[in-house]
Specification:
The protein is an alpha+beta fold and about 775 residues long. The chain contains 13 helices and 40 strands. Strands 21, 22, 23, 24, 25, 26, 27, 28, 29, 30, 32, 33 and 34 form a 13-stranded antiparallel beta sheet that branches. About 0% of the residues have low confidence.
Length: about 775
């Protein structure tokens, strides 16, 4: 047996997406990091061992413009490029490559931490010890700061951190969905299976462990289909009435019985066309949903989520529904889930990511400081990753300054928020001032700018019957006078058109009514009818408006295959048009689920809004925002004409300073369309490898003594956040020139930043 000691700035225990994101975030900021996991692969529940879909704030497209950026965003984009079919083994390697690209990060796979040593004079962790069975290696890991990203919260438990297990009473936080009395109920664990066509008849003899599901409520309350695999069977869940850690082996055996019982039913009941189907894979590691939840300086609650509380220390975000399952799991004689959405994304405060009583412990993932009800939303993996990047960023700053997590939030919150913004971390609405960024001091110009919000020119000839209410979300900057729709209806037809706001900048549904008008159909220049709604509305500040056209029998709106970025077309979900399968019980009166875009993804209604807009002006690249928030917050070129070759006639955006400044690093945040759900583990397939809106080929130049000098030239870019270091030079201008996109007919850039000192970073995916 070997024994070793590892001393680093930060120790992260847990190799799921929360732990990976935390470790990478800290390492990129210059901290030495040890990442420890007891599994042979990274990714936690998303790995090939368990195969849970990576879902997050988008909620399968329910929440708009909400896909995670930062480290989780990098993984999404790289997986989109490498792994269009969602192969779980390819996904393992995408996550592993991200970690291996960081020179400051040391990875310890197959290392089980089960011992924690505390400082003698204070409630702080001194070291943790892990055992690698295959290597017969025992390692003691020392650091000034530790992160528990284990999911089950074992490290914090051994350190004496306060935690909760089970459901709080309704009276504790005033949560409507909490029970009257506190109890020990949990969400259960799951096992999945995958099938394949063997190409010839394949029989199945059930093993002795197989459950006869005919004697259970499963057939009456759950959907079984031969084409489903993996997380399609998310409802294969059990163990919520037990201790999901101490009874883990029992839970696995019960879930194996259910899996083989379902497969026996598919193969041998005679109800399915399954003669040639065989099992390709069955999980052997239960995917846990819930166990310990630590207590921080703030406990996130149901009301925080549904009220979309604006925390001053928001460092991460979510948008998945509060998604609670019956404690009986598959044996429940009721729906498999109860869901409730906030009207848009919500913030997660830094105070929920560190321990209230262990002074050098942070955490991220399903063990953060949240009530059981709030945990029902924060537990999904892409949301856990956003927490991980925030906690890892904080850990690096804490180690560098020799302070506690609480002191960082209390005394250096601006530093934390500025660092997250600089790293393009996933925080909606973050506009932290960066004193080192030279870009806001510059004058910004571009070769062209999109000034018109309209889609009439791109109409397809298809009609959308107004058998239900429809809506268009569009940026209003500085005002909205009229919106004219292309309509197929007899002249004189009167349409009721309403103007709404979204309530909050991160929302994309009609929440607050502004006014109602009547639009009368008149003959248009092209022979199609035109219905013009007059509003003459100037909001107090630029924001998104929602123009609702009420259902009208006999009238149709014309459709288009194009729309300016930030414009959405929505359709009202009719009561008979359920948004989810019948095994999910949905709360009524949820605007975000009442308005959907199932038939309208990347499409719009043909319309034109007046007057001209400032929503796409070049100065938005230095306005401090890096993703849509009450508007697109980016520069967009004018529409590229059909047949125009950007290589011959490129678009560029320039920053000019009155006096030369020292430039040693340029950071560009390209638009990767955070409204697009991307492929992961057999879900959300898309028909492109690179997001169409991304600038793929570009050049970065600085102007030195009147001469343009190339600082970087890139072709084949597939990522959002690019950092280009150069030998520091005095320059009075910076220019980014785009020569190709992933297919979009405009060039868009979300942010450009310039710094005097090089970052010392290399791009992980090159």
């Amino acid at each position: 047996m070997q024994e070793r000691t590892s001393s680093t700035d930060v120790v992260v225990i847990g190799g799921g997406l929360a732990g990976v994101s935390a470790a990478v975030a800290a390492a990129r900021l210059g901290s030495s990091v040890a990442l420890i996991t007891n599994r042979p692969v990274l990714g936690g529940n998303s790995s090939s061992e368990v195969r849970v879909w990576v879902v997050g704030a988008t909620a399968h497209g329910t929440q708009r413009f909400s896909r995670e950026t930062g480290i989780m965003g990098e993984l999404f984009l790289e997986n989109q490029y490498r792994n269009a079919e969602g192969n779980p083994h390819y996904w393992d390697q995408v996550v592993l490559d991200l970690v291996r690209a960081e020179p400051n990060l040391t990875l310890h796979l197959n290392t089980d931490v089960r011992t924690v040593r505390m400082h003698e004079d204070r409630q702080a962790i001194r070291s943790v010890t892990g055992w690698a069975m295959g290597s017969e290696l025992q390692t003691t890991f020392e650091a000034p700061v530790f992160l528990d990203c284990t999911g089950d919260g074992l490290i914090g438990h051994l350190a004496g951190a306060e935690y909760r297990i089970g459901r709080e009473a309704r009276s504790e936080y005033g949560e409507e969905w909490a029970p009257e009395e506190a109890d020990d109920e949990l969400l259960g664990s799951s096992l999945f299976f995958y099938t394949k066509d063997a190409g010839r008849p394949s029989r199945f003899v059930p093993p002795s462990i197989a459950t006869d599901i005919g004697g259970t409520p499963i057939l009456a309350n759950r959907i079984i289909r031969t084409g489903d695999n993996g997380c399609d069977y998310w409802w294969i869940e059990w163990g919520g009435e037990l201790d999901t850690v101490t009874e883990n082996e029992r839970i696995r055996d019960e879930l194996w019985g259910v899996v083989f019982g379902i497969w026996d039913h598919i193969k041998n009941s005679g109800d399915f066309d399954s003669e040639n189907l065989t099992l390709e894979w069955v999980g052997s590691l239960p995917g846990k949903r819930e166990y310990r939840r630590f207590v921080g300086d703030h406990t996130l609650t149901q009301n925080d989520i549904l009220d979309q509380v604006d925390f001053p220390d928001t460092v991460a975000f979510g948008g998945w529904s509060i998604d609670l399952h019956p404690v009986e799991g598959v044996y429940a004689d009721r729906a498999g889930a109860q869901q409730r959405y906030s009207a848009g994304t919500y913030g997660i405060p830094y105070r929920s990511l560190y321990s209230r009583n262990v002074e050098n412990l942070l955490f991220a993932g399903r063990d953060i400081s949240a009530s059981h009800v709030a945990f029902g939303s924060t537990r999904v993996m892409a949301t856990c990753s956003t927490q991980g990047q925030a906690a890892g960023t904080a850990a690096s700053l804490i180690a560098r300054r020799g302070i506690t997590p609480r002191a960082l939030g209390r005394d250096h919150l601006d530093l934390l928020l500025t660092t997250l913004a600089r790293e393009d971390a996933p925080v909606v609405g973050l506009r932290a001032a960066d004193p080192d960024d030279l870009a806001p001091r510059a004058t910004v110009t571009a070769t062209s700018t999109l000034t018109a919000i309209g889609t009439v020119a791109a109409r397809t000839g298809e009609r959308y019957p107004l058998d239900r209410d429809v809506a268009v979300v569009l940026p209003v900057d500085p005002r909205l006078d009229t919106v004219a729709f292309a309509v197929e209806a007899p002249p004189g037809t009167e349409l009721t058109v309403e103007l709404w706001t979204t309530g909050r900048p991160q929302n994309y549904a009609p929440i607050e009514h502004v006014q109602t008008t009547t639009a009368v159909v008149a003959a248009g220049d092209t022979g199609e009818g035109v219905a013009t709604a007059a509003f003459a509305w100037t909001p107090p500040a630029p924001c998104n408006g929602v123009v609702v056209v009420r259902a009208h029998a006999g009238a149709s709106l014309l459709l288009t295959d194009d729309r300016p970025y930030g414009v959405l077309a929505l359709e009202r979900r009719l009561p008979a048009d359920a948004a989810f399968d019948h095994h999910i019980a949905e709360e009524e009166d949820q605007p975000v689920t009442d308005w959907v875009a199932r038939k309208l993804r990347r499409r719009s209604f043909a319309f034109e809004a007046l007057p001209a807009t400032a929503a796409y002006h070049p100065e938005h690249v230095v306005d401090g925002y890096q993703r849509p928030y009450g508007g697109p917050h980016l520069w967009s070129s004018a529409t590229i004409a059909e047949g125009r070759d950007l290589r011959e006639a490129p678009e560029s955006i320039s920053l000019t300073w009155e006096q030369p400044v020292m430039i040693g690093s340029v950071r560009i945040v390209f638009n990767d369309d955070v409204d697009e759900d991307l492929v992961n583990l057999h879900h959300h397939r898309t028909d492109f490898e690179v997001v169409p809106e991304l600038v793929t080929d570009y050049r970065v130049e600085v102007r030195v003594a009147g001469r343009w000098v190339t600082a970087a030239e890139v072709s084949g870019n597939r990522h959002r956040h690019r950092i280009h270091d150069l030998e520091p030079v005095a320059a009075d201008a910076l220019r980014v020139t785009a020569y190709a996109t992933g297919g979009a007919r405009v060039v868009t850039v979300s942010a450009i930043k310039a710094y005097s000192e090089p970052s010392g970073r290399t791009h992980p995916w090159t």
